[in-house]
């Protein structure tokens, strides 16, 4: 029997660059996840339309749009990363088009739940 996994993890501004490097596979190695097969990273794809800004720039732009009454604290949580996945058996039982639909549906759900204006990236990792 397969199972679904949804993990939400909060980050402060100092962690944002590391998350961006990891999500975009900007390095050819990982100290934190030895399971990544970087030979397969070329198969990863984005569901969210990317712009040329960094994650940090996108976050700062979104915060400025909120017109907050005061400055954001230096130790404030500024980003939540959501991981949506399942076990290998689940994905092996699905044809590629159904796998893609699973991730598209998950992406659409997250946009609806948290607001499309709050999404800065959505990467499907097949590596």
Describe it.
The chain has helices spanning 16-24, 55-65, 88-92, 96-114; strands spanning 4-12, 45-46, 77-86, 123-124. The model has no long low-confidence stretch (mean pLDDT 93). It has four helices and four strands. The two termini are 23 Å apart. Helix content is 35%, strand content 18%. With 127 residues, the protein is an alpha+beta fold. The strands form two sheets. Strands 1-3 form a two-stranded antiparallel sheet. A two-stranded antiparallel ribbon has the order 2-4. It is globular and about 50 Å long.
Task: Produce a short descriptive summary.
Helix content is 35%, strand content 18%. It is α+β, with helices and mostly antiparallel strands.
**What is the alpha-carbon Rg in Å?**
16 Å
C-alpha end-to-end distance? 23 Å
Number of helices: 4
Percent helix range: 25-40%
Number of DSSP strands? 4
Give the biggest beta sheet: 2 strands, antiparallel
- Helix-strand topology string: EHEHEHHE
Mean pLDDT level: 93
Q: Which percent band covers the strand fraction?
A: 15-25%
Spatially, the strands of the biggest sheet line up as 1-3
Contiguous uncertain segments of 5+ residues: none
Derived from helix and strand composition plus strand pairing, the structural class reads: alpha+beta
Principal-axes geometry comes out as globular
């Amino acid at each position: 029997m397969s199972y679904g996994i949804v993990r939400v993890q909060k980050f402060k501004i100092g962690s944002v660059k590391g998350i961006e490097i990891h999500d975009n596979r900007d390095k050819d190695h990982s100290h934190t996840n030895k399971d990544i097969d970087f030979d397969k990273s070329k198969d990863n794809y984005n569901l969210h339309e990317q712009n040329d800004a960094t994650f940090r720039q996108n976050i700062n732009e979104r915060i400025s749009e909120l017109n907050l009454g005061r400055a954001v604290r230096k130790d404030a949580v500024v980003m939540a990363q959501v991981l949506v996945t399942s076990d290998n058996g689940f994905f092996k039982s699905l044809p590629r088009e159904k796998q893609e639909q699973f991730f598209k549906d998950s992406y659409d759900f997250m946009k609806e739940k948290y607001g499309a204006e709050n999404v800065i990236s959505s990467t499907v990792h097949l590596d």
